[in-house]
Amino acid sequence: MVFTSVANFVRSRGPDEFWRKRKIFKMAAHYIGRSRNCYSLAIRSVHRALVFATKGRALKKQDLANLWVTRITAGCEQHDVNYHVFRESLSRSNIMLNRKSLADLACWEPFTFKALTDIAQKRALEEGIAPPKGNKVLFVPKRGSQKKT
Amino acid sequence: MAGALRKIFATFARSYPKPVAQLLPRLYSNVPTPYEIVDAQEERKTYQDVIDKVNRQVAQAKQGRLFAVVHIQGKQVKVTEGDVFVVEGYWPPGAGDRISLDKVLLVGGRDFTLVGRPLVQRGLVQVEATVIEETLSHTKTHFKKKRRKQYMRINFMRVPQTMLRVNRIEIVGEVNHPSDVTGLETRVF
To answer: TM spans, by residue (chain A) (predicted)?
Structure first.
C-alpha cells in the first residue's frame, strides 16, 4: 500500500468511502457553492459535466462544420457566387477540396479563393448550374456597391 | 452538349409563331444560353503565357514561400514549410520517418495557385515531412448516464496522435509538362 503521509496511511485502512468521494471532489474542485463541498450535490454536477463533455465532442465537430460553411459563404458572396453553385461547380470540375480547406483558403488565401470562384463561375455558366430555389440572396451590400447618386 | 441542345431548342422555339412554340416540349427554358465566341488560338496563347510566367517565376526562385493543401489519413491540411501538424488515429509511420506527401490538392505561391483536379500533376510538387513525435492524446472520458434508470457507463480513451513537421515544399517539375512515364519514383525494382 502506497501512502505519502501519516494521514493517508490512517485513511487507507478503513472503508474506501473517503477515496471514492475524493475522486468526485477532485473533479468538483473548481465549482462554486455547495456543489463543491457537499458530496450528494457534487456527484450530481460532476455527472452532468461528464455527460456534457462526452456530447460536446460530437457537437464541436458539427459546430466547426457550420463555421466552415459560414466562412465559405462569406467568401463566395464577395465574388458574387452562391455557396451551393460554388461547391457543385468545384465538384463537377473534379476539385475535391473539402469544407475545411476551402474555409482556410477563404480566410487566409484570398487570391487563391478568388481563383477558385472564377473556376466555379465559368463552370456554372457552361453547365447552367443555378442556385437552389428559396435560397436566393437578393442583394448583399458590399464595399463600393452603394454608390452616391 | 446540354448547352448546345438548349440553344437549338431556344432558336427553334423562337422561329415559330407563339402557339407552335407552346406545343413544343417545355423541357428547356426559352432563355438563350449565354455564350461567348472563343478564339481557340487566342485562348491557347493566353494560357501558355500564364504557364510560362509561372515556370519562369519558379525557375528564378521568385515564387516565395509555398503553401500546399495535402490529403493525409482522410483529412486535408493546409501546410507550409516549417509547420507542425497532427495526424489523429492509427497511422503506421513512426518517429524519425521521413515521408513525402504525394496527394497534393493545391499549391500556392506568391503570384500563382496550382489547382489539382483532384491532384496536382504527379512529380510536380514535393512536400516532405518528418514524423517528430508519436503520442497519445489526453484522456477523454466517455460517460453515459440515464436518470432514474440505473444506467451509467464510463470508459476512458486516448487517441494515438502523430506530429509531423513539414520540411520542404518545392516545385520540382515544370508546370503543364508531365513526364511520359509517371509513378516510377515510388516503386522499388
So the answer is: none
